[in-house]
Design brief:
Layout (H helix, E strand, L loop, with lengths): L10 H18 L5 H15 L2 H13 L4 H6 L11 H14 L10 H10 L2 H24 L13
Helix pairs in contact: 1-7, 2-3, 2-5, 2-7, 5-6, 5-7
Length: 157
């Protein structure tokens, strides 16, 4: 399988990726816990059916020390006992923020309030930005059918 477009070989795509990666650095350098960031990226990627990002973020999380059990349970986090209340709040916000078209009201006040109990304003800004960012990456990769499976941890870092 080959991608429809080489994002890394097209000058317009390369320039766009430089800017979007800069936005990602702002989030990764924030006080939002790194483990939470990886869980959010993985969950949104699963929802969006982005194989490339699911592969990347599960491997990056494992390389950073995330357990296989937690990675396997991200898709079923509601029934899993292995996530903190803060992580669960971030995963719920991720799901509602990713599935905007599925809910007429978007993110509910209840989900926002729950996230706000666990994260300060800067962390919330990072979390919201991360949800938007991973959804953008997912859409890029899904539209061009970027193949999954060959990613090596830290490949783009």
């Amino acid at each position: 399988m080959e991608a429809r477009l080489n994002l890394f070989g097209n000058p317009v795509a390369e320039k766009f990726l430089r800017y979007i990666n800069s936005a990602g650095k702002v989030v990764s350098d924030s006080s939002l816990p790194a483990a939470t960031q990886e869980l959010v990226k993985l969950r949104a990627s699963q929802i969006n059916g982005c194989g490339f990002c699911t592969d990347m973020h599960s491997k990056d999380a494992a390389a950073a020390g995330e357990t296989a059990q937690r990675l396997h349970l991200v898709a079923a986090w509601r029934e899993a006992k292995v996530f903190t209340d803060a992580e669960r709040a971030a995963l719920e916000l991720t799901e509602q923020g990713t599935r905007l078209a599925d809910a007429a009201g978007g993110v509910t006040d209840e989900v926002w309030a729950n996230a706000a109990k666990h994260y300060d304003e800067d962390q919330l800004a990072a979390l919201v930005s991360l949800i938007a960012l991973i959804n953008a990456y997912n859409r890029l990769n899904c539209i061009i059918q970027q193949p999954a499976g060959d990613y090596q941890p830290g490949q783009f870092g």
